[in-house]
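Hi X.,

You mentioned you wanted examples for the new student's onboarding notes, showing what a folding record looks like when two proteins sit in one file. Here is a clean example. The first protein comes first, with its sequence line followed by its structure tokens.
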Amino acid sequence: MRRFSGDRLLVATHNSGKLEEIADLLSDHAIQVIGAAELGLDEPEETGADFVANARIKAHAASSVTGLPALADDSGIEIDALGGAPGVHTADWAETPGGRDFVRAMTRTYNALLDSGAAQPWIARFCCTFVLAWPDGHCETFEGYMNGRITWPMRGNRGHGYDPIFQPDGHAVTFGQMSRLEKNRISHRADAFRKLNAVFRHG
């Protein structure tokens, strides 16, 4: 495994919620975290068939343009009763002409589950893939998961995305009801980061 030896890391996301979570996770390291929006980077088209492929596209695109090591995350929710959907289309389900509307996406998810006729519990998992890419083309990949279920109605106004309808296993509240600190301890992103963290250790 290649180790990270710099002091500046580009996080290849325009999502402020993800950037905050990743910055929190990296807070124990003496690393300056820079977001893609801060550098005015365009978002590459995500044409991959899975989370790993999309994360690689984003990480390599950002690193090659800036000459900085770039960390990209691709994540989403997979629901068993919907055949794994929305999966890589998690954010697409929120797209509207005026921008992303995750209340709309969560409502679409609930309606799709009703239409499927599937009985509860509606088993689901949040998935996260981190890819850390260097300007020379090398990359390291780390995957994480959080299992749980879809719940309705929406509960909580914290977090982002589908958090208000996802109840993680072993908890009576949704991600949307948890503090950022609590969520960051158990989330799919935290699981992936625990594996990624080895890249930042020295010695």
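Then the second protein repeats the pattern, sequence line and then tokens:
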Amino acid sequence: MGTGTGILALMAAQRGAQHVVGVEIDSEAVGQARENVRRSPFASVVDIVQADLCTWQSDQCFDIILSNPPFFREDTLSPIAARATARHAAVLTFENLVACACRHLAPEGRFSVVLPAKEMAHFTGICVLHDLSLLRCTQVSTRPGQPPKRVLLTFTNHPNPDRTLRDTLTLTNDDGRRSAAYASLTADFYLR
């Protein structure tokens, strides 16, 4: 949801998803996403749809919904309209994103988002109002000992999962190089 240039859609296909639908409102981003898909080995697996998520209809429900949504709620909007739409939750609010995810999520599905750490409580509260339960929370820090800058959250539409899996991911070591955990997690996505 909000596929942008298609990077998460392509990563999902590379990780084995058999059918991926990327939905994006911005026509330039859609063009870039379609070109990226066309040039990839996953062109038969990934479809890019230009649509407003708030009004988009699909005949299918999805096992996994991924989003790196617009997440700045209070900052000054960029004067560049496409950048403001991509980064600020003014057009696609958290409430609208969660409602859309709930509409399209399969009964056993999972909804995952990447957010600034400061937005976690607000976003999780919205999910609770939509009967989504937090299944996993990964706090992402840039360096050891620093507070998390991002969180990776996964929700399920099953009430009260047995417990929420909580972990951390540190992107770099003290020397500034990729941490072993981050390097292992992302190894498949780098050119060799």
